[in-house]
Amino acid sequence: MIRSKAGVPRRAGPRGKHLTFGRTRAGARRRQRLRRLLALGLPTAWGAVAITYKLACPLAQQNGLGARIATCAVFFAVGTGLILHVRRGLLRELRQIRRVAGAAQGVLLRPLPPSVDGLNVAAAQVSADRGASVGGDLYEVIGTEHGVRVVMGDVRGHGLAAIGTVAAVLGSFREAVHDEPELPGVLRRLERAMARHLRERAKAGHPSSGPSGPDPDSPVAEEFVTVLLLEIGRDGEMRALNCGHPWPYLLRGGGGGAGGGDRVEHLGFGDPLPPLGAFPLPTELPVVRCGPLLPGEALFLYTDGVEDARDSQGRFFPLPAALTEATRTHPTAPQEVLGTVFTQLLAHADGFPTDDVALLVVANGRTQVQTAHREQLATPL
């Protein structure tokens, strides 16, 4: 592009961009230096007040009791002001660090949309580490051309130490669900991603370890993640692969007796596959047919930190009873069901569970489903 100034044509090229960028950086450095000077201004002023009082004030030169009390009061005020100034600066830095950490963790375990391809979704989680918004639990719901695919997982351990494994599994899942037409292909991708992650961690901790895998004596060799993969087709049919994770609960919106027990059904379909990272997956990965998710029905997925939560007397959290109560008040509205169960869980655990907790509710908000009857028994594909 040609620009002209004072009748002389001038070409704007990369040099102009570099000059602009340099001016911007110089201005930022000047502003940073100014902020530092302002930050030092108050302590300098307090120090000047103390020195001036000690050297120039006649009262500070006297040895009487009143003079000593006045001197102590002045220096106490100066010290208090300095402490408050330092505290204010530390709190400002802490807020900035929390904002950065929250943004990074929000990208890792991003908020779910309220609806995915006609399915209403709600999720909540809490980390066992105070101050952390993400721990060792993971979940994701993605609409694809193959159907809506859901993952729920739980990394061995909890808190910030498990975030690396969560990132490896979630990153692989978000790519594989679009590329792989069948669930076994998605699970194979997750297994390879988990194996690469463990090898990299083993090399970081033990540089002598080779490409064959982690050292059996390394703590990395004991790391694993339980995973539940779920696919909900356009007709509502559900298919699943379970690697050591708790099976979900099915919530029905209508019917139900006085106790509401038949509104809540635990879906259990035999022995699950081994968790990822603990043992190699078998050659054959039989997909389990879980029947259709009809309109007005919902799935409640969770990690084992929910059922393992204990109260002050050591009693476990009664999840089926909490779900029954939630469906009696709010049949299958995801946000309401989630809020009711989560509130009861926190009250049961005195406000802070000892393990990471994740809850996910997926409700069928579609108006048409091709399948009219639910299969009574799960059969492998």
Automatic annotation (TrEMBL):
Recorded GO MF terms: phosphatase activity
Record bears the keyword Kinase: no
Chain ranges of the PPM-type phosphatase domain: 116-364
Alphabetized UniProt keyword annotations: Hydrolase, Membrane, Transmembrane, Transmembrane helix
Compositional bias (Basic residues): 12-25
Lineage: superkingdom: Bacteria
InterPro entries given in the database record: Bact_Sigma-Reg, PPM-type-like_dom_sf, PPM-type_phosphatase-like_dom
UniProt keyword Aminoacyl-tRNA synthetase present: no
Name recorded for this polypeptide: Protein phosphatase
Region (Disordered): 1-25, 199-220
Organism this protein belongs to: Streptomyces dioscori
Database matches in Gene3D superfamilies: PPM-type phosphatase domain (3.60.40.10)
Ranges that cross the membrane: 37-53, 65-86
